[in-house]
Amino acid sequence: xxxxxxxxxxxxxxxxxxxxxxxxxxxxxxxxxxxxxxxxxxxxxxxxxxxxxxxxxxxxxxxxxxxxxxxxxxxxxxxxxxxxxxxxxxxxxxxxxxxxxxxxxxxxxxxxxxxxxxxxxxxxxxxxxxxxxxxxxxxxxxxxxxxxxxxxxxxxxxxxxxxxxxxxxxxxxxxxxxxxxxxxxxxxxxxxxxxxxxxxxxxxxxxxxxxxxxxxxxxxxxxxxxxxxxxxxxxxxxxxxxxxxxxxxxxxxxxxxxxxxxxxxxxxxxxxxxxxxxxxxxxxxxxxxxxxxxxxxxxxxxxxxxxxxxxxxxxxxxxxxxxxxxxxxxxxxxxxxxxxxxxxxxx
Length: 347
Ligand SMILES: Nc1ncnc2c1ncn2[C@@H]1O[C@H](COP(=O)(O)OP(=O)(O)OP(=O)(O)O)[C@@H](O)[C@H]1O
Hints:
347 residues; alpha/beta; Rossmann fold; SH3 type barrels; Elongation Factor Tu (Ef-tu), domain 3; 3 domains; 6-stranded antiparallel β-barrel; 5-stranded parallel β-sheet; binds adenosine-5'-triphosphate; Rossmann-like_a/b/a_fold; ATP-binding; tRNA-specific 2-thiouridylase MnmA; transferase
């Protein structure tokens, strides 16, 4: 590929991964420009701080950078969905939505408008323009979060860090320049960029989450009390009472309608069948065997998938424990992502 006249837009967050991404691509011969997305209105100097780092890196590389304000779109597509999910008693995955709608949606449109041939980010994942693959560094792999991006976006995506380990990127950053060194010394960015502490602090701004309710067993008997259903996610085992319980009890279901939660022993979390909807598939087959991850950081479970319209049934060949509606089921063939879909229910 002749890189000297190809422009790559790099999504720059002010963190070490995207800063090293920009450096690597420039070294490879691409014309690099950066773009910083303002995604939420945090008041603690968050954006100013990030932009300070980006300015220093851009100066070192002698590249242009842009600031794109997507706060309204982010609120609509990601933030509101996040809050609404907890109100509905499901467990959201805002990073997945953000990757589809914002980073590889609106940011990609911006890159194209600026005549970039590619959009690069510091995600740990791989792509060959047709599929997404897990990164070599298992502990950092982000393919799960990228599995909902539009197939049409794949040919434009670049992940230059895909074969590296995070610690190598940090070492490289520390050697490059004082600006990079300062970034390596920053705290790692939080898991969800707009959640400064815990998710309940965000939901609290929009709803009264502290309405106590009843804890039920699987037969519907009242067995204890809880603090308000939005405090819990599937599999949680603390923060509620179960009178006279000898063994740990886990949340198996949330009922927003009557503010009850259902709990059971470990076996009650066992799931063998999962129903999913809103598929985003990179393959055409409607029936196939593969492995599935039912949440980030969970093991891959062998399964059979049967797709009908925009829904699918997943028959697990080994049981999963604690499957939450609202999370994503991501289908893999070894390290290749075949597609993904949102979990509706499980049994
Ligand atoms: N606000 C933003 N503006 C532009 N690009 C962003 C922004 N936030 C994240 N990105 C891009 O998405 C990639 C993955 O985001 P993630 O939040 O997982 O960051 P990270 O792994 O901490 O990376 P970094 O060290 O670059 O912050 C980043 O490396 C960057 O390329």
